[in-house]
Amino acid sequence: MAKAAPRYVCQKCGAAGSKWSGRCDACGEWNSIVEETPLAQGPAGKSLGQSRGRKLVLSDLSSKEAPPPRTACKIDELDRVLGGGLVPASAVLVGGDPGIGKSTLLLQAAAAFARAGLKVVYISGEEASAQVRLRAQRLNLADAPVKLATETNLRDILTTLDEVKPDLAIIDSIQTMWADNVDSAPGSVSQVRAAAHELTAFAKRRGAAVILVGHVTKEGNLAGPRVVEHMVDTVLYFEGERGHQFRILRSVKNRFGPADEIGVFEMTGGGLAEVSNPSALFLAERGAPAPGAVVFSGIEGTRPVLTEFQALVAPSPHSQPRRSVVGWDGSRLAMILAVLESRCGIPFAGLDVYLNVAGGMRVGEPAADLAVAAALLSAREDAPLPPETVVFGEISLSGALRPVGQTENRLKEAAKLGFSTAILPSGGKARGSKAMKLTQMSDLASFVGEVFGAG
Ligand code: TYD
Ligand code: MG
């Protein structure tokens, strides 16, 4: 019988159960289970299939569909991450740590879209209107035709939006929204889910674009269930290291464009400034060739981006040596250390290993394997790589080097920035040129032998 029985929902993973417990069975989190009243109940005792609904109109796959009309805001780094501009009737989620600059970015975006001709409404649930206006003045955006309100009541917001009919509504943030038909506190899973659902429904109903701001937890998940990510069309993360001025807007999901595209910004006194040549920026602090520093020619979305991997290897005073990684995957580092140890006979036991990607960049490509291995070896041997060298390639568990995609683009970007040598796996479609000498190898052991004269 479908009766309004209480539901117990884990606030971390969203798993629901019929009884309370101190620990979530699904994700193992302690003290995360909260009682929630279900939103709405169907007719008691009847499954949906038993009562007759409306017959759907089915169409063919071949029916002609024009590409969605897009509005570009002329902030190129944002337009590209959106897949070429904002699509009507779409919902975008922008996640990021508190204080990273989401409100700043979206206020600038609001002004830019308003200047591009959209009717823009900016609803802040966190800051008073005066505060937002002050920021707009500081950013020199006060004259942009953006409509502003401070509100957290979802019903009032929806009524306003339905009446004003904006082309773009920005909600800052989804965690502060409060739906009065849901019986739990703002920021809880059910509230976040209800607010996201109502606001996406508004976007589809009115053909407006909706941008939701979401806070990210320590572990990097959007606070609230992952279901919000499934509800929206596009998920962007705004990330960066505290203490660095670089900010990266990364699309992790996009129904209207490529995922994994990045936009690079710099936080300045006057707001976020676009960085159109990120390679130059990430390599700007590079000095003379130093042991442990290796330049990696990577691909972020559709763009090649050069970054510097820095490694430090030092004798460990601990019985369990430290493995510390910033900007790359820790388990991937463990794998490369294991391959170096068992396939090339280079032990890292008793040594602390630190790995860092310069400039606060985060690299997710396996193509960086060889650059990481090179940085580790260079640090361990205290020998810098030859100057003006870039490195890329994937390493397999057998120690073989695998060619990676977009080799041409990687080489071209490196040549553009003045690099003259590339170390990469053999095979693939790489072609050297006068400006770019290629050193190709088929396995990690020959890389070690050739570059560090050992192995
Ligand atoms: P904010 O956009 O409020 O972050 P979020 O909405 O993600 O919590 O940005 C907060 C930080 O940005 C704050 O520490 C100050 C800094 N900032 C600048 O450096 N320059 C600026 O022009 C602005 C508006 C903010
Ligand atoms: Mg904010």
TrEMBL record:
SMART domains: AAA. SUPFAM superfamilies: P-loop containing nucleoside triphosphate hydrolases (SSF52540), Ribosomal protein S5 domain 2-like (SSF54211). One of its GO terms (molecular function) is zinc ion binding. InterPro entries: AAA+_ATPase, DNA_repair_RadA, P-loop_NTPase, RecA_ATP-bd, Ribosomal_Su5_D2-typ_SF, Ribsml_uS5_D2-typ_fold_subgr, Rubredoxin_2. Residues 67-216 form the RecA family profile domain. A motif (RadA KNRFG motif) lies at residues 253-257. ATP binds at residues 96-103. GO terms for biological process: recombinational repair. GO terms for cellular component: cytosol. Keywords: ATP-binding, DNA damage, DNA repair, DNA-binding, Hydrolase, Metal-binding, Nucleotide-binding, Stress response, Zinc, Zinc-finger. It holds the Pfam family ChlI. It comes from the Bacteria. Gene3D superfamilies: 3.30.230.10, P-loop containing nucleotide triphosphate hydrolases. Residues 352-455 are annotated as: Lon-protease-like. DNA-dependent ATPase involved in processing of recombination intermediates, plays a role in repairing DNA breaks. Stimulates the branch migration of RecA-mediated strand transfer reactions, allowing the 3' invading strand to extend heteroduplex DNA faster. Binds ssDNA in the presence of ADP but not other nucleotides, has ATPase activity that is stimulated by ssDNA and various branched DNA structures, but inhibited by SSB. Does not have RecA's homology-searching function. The middle region has homology to RecA with ATPase motifs including the RadA KNRFG motif, while the C-terminus is homologous to Lon protease. Belongs to the RecA family. RadA subfamily. This is DNA repair protein RadA.
